[in-house]
Amino acid sequence: SAPGFRPCVPLAAPVAVFKLTADFREDQNPSKVNLGVGAYRTDEGQPWVLPVVRKVEKMIADDHSLNHEYLPILGLPEFRSSASQIALGEDSPAIKDNRVGAVQCLGGTGALKIGAEFLRRWYNGTDNTKTPIYVSAPTWENHNAVFSNAGFEDIRPYKYWDAGKRGLDLEGFLSDLESAPDHSIFVLHACAHNPTGTDPTQDQWKQISDVMKRKSLFAFFDSAYQGFASGNLDKDAWAVRYFVSQGFELFCAQSFSKNFGLYNERVGNLTVVAKDQDNLNRVLSQMEKIVRITWSNPPSQGARLVAITLNTPELFAEWKDNVKTMADRVLLMRAQLKEKLKALGTPGTWEHITEQIGMFSFTGLNPKQVEYLVKEKHIYLMASGRINMCGLTTKNIDYVAESIHEAVTTV
C-alpha cells in the first residue's frame, strides 16, 4: 500500500441475497428457479415497468419547462406532500393541523437513515446512543445495520415470528413491549412484514398501540409495500393511520421501489408526524442539516414521476390499477402454491401461505430442506426458508410444489 495508508483489509462477503443471485446465474440447469430475488417479476419472470410510469416518463421528457437545477435540500415539495398524504390519508387530522412534514430520501433505506440520524442526535436530549432500538425477530437485515451505523449501541430483537404455528407471536411481542424501557424506539413494518409476510390484524395493532402509548415508546414505521401488499392503499396504511389517530408522534419511512417499480431511481420519503407545527419546524430544520452533509439534495427524476402520478387524478387511478395487477398476481401464486401442496398431501399445514401477505413468504422449510432444494432441485431461496412469491410462475409452480413436497417428505 502507498505510504501513509494502512494495508488494505478484505471486503466483507456480499449479503446473502446477492450471493444467492450470483449462484443462480452460474447454474446451467434449464429447470432452475430463483425464489430469492428481491423485486417483482411478471409471469414470464421478467421485470415490469408499470404502464403509468412509461406514460409519465414521456410527459417529463416532453416538458421543456423542466430543467436540472438543484432541488431544495428537503426535496421536491409536491412529491413530499403527496407521498405523506397517501401514507396518512387525504382526511388526516394531522395534515390539517399542519403538523406533518417530510424529507425526500434516497429510497426507503435513505428514509430510515435520516430518521435514525435525527433520533440519535435529538430524540431524548442530545446523545441517544444508549437508547434501545427494537427490531422484529426476524427483520429486514438492513434495519440492524442502519441504526448501528447511525451510532445506536443497543439494538435488540422483539419477538415476532412463531415458527411452531407459522404466524405472529403476539404474546411475545406484547411482552417485549411491556419489558422495554420507557421511550425505547420500535421499528415496525407498516404492512407485508419482511421477511415473514405475517402482519398483525387490526385488533392486534390496537393492542400493540395501547402498550406503546402507555410506555411512551416511539414508533418508527417502515412502509415499503403500500398498495403492493393487498392491492389497496388504504388497507395497507391502516396501522400507521391508527397510530396517528391515537396521538403518536412518529416517523414513517416510505419506499416507492416496489409499488412504482422504481428500484433504481431510489425514491423514498420520510414522513414526520409531530405534536404541533412549531415542533415540526424544529425537526425539519435539524433534518435539513443532516441531509446537507449526507447527500446535499436529492435527485429529481423519480420524485417528479411519483409526484405527477399522485397529483393527476387519471394517472393516480391508473397507478392504483397497475399496483393491483402486481398484488393480484402475488395473491394468485400464494393460493395456487397452497392448493398444489395440499393436493400432493405434503405433510404439515400450509394455510400460512395465504394468511401471509406481500411479496415474501416464510415457508417453514428448515435449512436442510432448503439445501436440498438448492442442490438437488436447483430452486434458489434463502436459508431461512423465505421465498419471493414473484419467483413463481404458471410455468414453474408445479415443479416448485413437487420439489417442496419431495424435500419435506425425504429430508
Automatic annotation (TrEMBL):
Superkingdom as given in the UniProt entry: Eukaryota
Subcellular location: Cytoplasm
CDD domains linked to this entry: AAT_like (cd00609)
GO biological process, one term: aspartate biosynthetic process
InterPro entries: Aminotransferase_I/II_large (IPR004839), Asp_trans (IPR000796), NHTrfase_class1_PyrdxlP-BS (IPR004838), PyrdxlP-dep_Trfase (IPR015424), PyrdxlP-dep_Trfase_major (IPR015421), PyrdxlP-dep_Trfase_small (IPR015422)
Keyword Transferase tagged: yes
Entry cofactors: pyridoxal 5'-phosphate
Sorted UniProt keywords: Amino-acid biosynthesis, Aminotransferase, Cytoplasm, Pyridoxal phosphate, Transferase
UniProt-listed PANTHER family: ASPARTATE AMINOTRANSFERASE
Name of the protein in its database record: Aspartate aminotransferase
Annotated source species: Sinocyclocheilus grahami (Dianchi golden-line fish)
Organismal lineage: Eukaryota, Metazoa, Chordata, Craniata, Vertebrata
Gene designation: LOC107586067
